[in-house]
Amino acid sequence: MALTLPRPHRDDWRIAVGGLLGGVLLWVLGIRPRTPSDGLVLWDASWAPLVPLAVTAACEPLRRTAPRAGLMIGTAALILDTVTCGSIVTVVLYTDLVYAAVLYGTPASARRIPWITGMLTVVGGVLPAALWRDPQGLLIGVGIGVVAFAPAATGWVVRNHRDAAEAARLRAEQIALLAEMDRAQAVTAERTRMARELHDVIANHLSAIAIHSTAALSLGDPETSKGALGVIRENSVAGLAEMRRLIGILRDNDGDLEPAATPTLDGLGGLVGGARANGLDVTLDAGHDAVPAPVELAAYRIVQESLTNALKHAAKGRVHIGLQQRSGTLDVRVTSPYRSGDAARAPGSGAGLTGMRERATLLGGTFAAGPDGGVWTVHATFPLTEGEPA
What we know:
Layout: H1 10-29, H2 50-59, H3 62-65, H4 67-81, H5 88-104, H6 107-132, H7 138-218, H8 222-251, H9 268-277, E1 281-287, H10 293-313, E2 318-326, E3 329-337, H11 351-362, E4 366-372, E5 375-383
Parallel strand pairs: 1-2
Antiparallel strand pairs: 2-3, 3-5, 4-5
């Protein structure tokens, strides 16, 4: 496969054409740095300076696409220019080739060219002065420094500034990308948290409504239907209040997305009372001291969801809630009667178990749920000290 070089930049073409026309104009006007009578002029044909001028100008389109090749050809042209009457434009174009080789070349070229031109500047000044025993020999080094080392050093400085600006731009892009990722993760986490809140809070009331409405429709006893309708009304009002509270949280712009009145373990009594009103036989055994607020909320929600699941799925019998604090952990266990094959009294999506597991995992705890003989057990543990897994 043939190697194709990128097309030269249009500005490089302009430099080449402008330099060539300027050099030809100076040649027509007879402006030359040397005359045929000088001892260094070995090729004294009047048109001789145009050859290195044309070669150097032809190297300009390579200053970005192939800077090292352009510099090597330009160096050969400059050496040829020194044995003719010369052209100032050839020297100026060569300095641009040196500058471009450092600025656009490889990192290795950018390091070596300033070092090589600096050494040539020193040697070109010290060696002639020592051989000729004439301080004017130092002017040769000055000339090399102006033509080669100065543009190389300038290119090195500009390249360093360009690389630093590019690195800063990349860092800014990375920071912006990380910020966007953090924002997306925060939004996802908040949506997940609100989904858990909606499920744990509203599902409890809606499950009770579904079960008691079924009872009210299927039973012909007016008193039983009246009692079921009363339970339905209570759960409807409570569910509506909770929904309004959650909507208020979503509309809150002060950054505080936590509920104004976060449920606590002290409210388990009221939760048990509501479960009993819905027809569950519930006992509560709570032995704990003050626990961190996140753990308290998670434990409350797990108990609440467990009671909801018991209302929908448990067989007839006693539901037991146990909370025990020991060895820096809070142990939450809810057991309910279980009989395989029983149909659920209200539909479920399985999101409740997922939400309970998420709550425990987020706080570094553990969670397990499943049948054990004739009992369905929900068991969660929470560390009470930050950073210590349960």
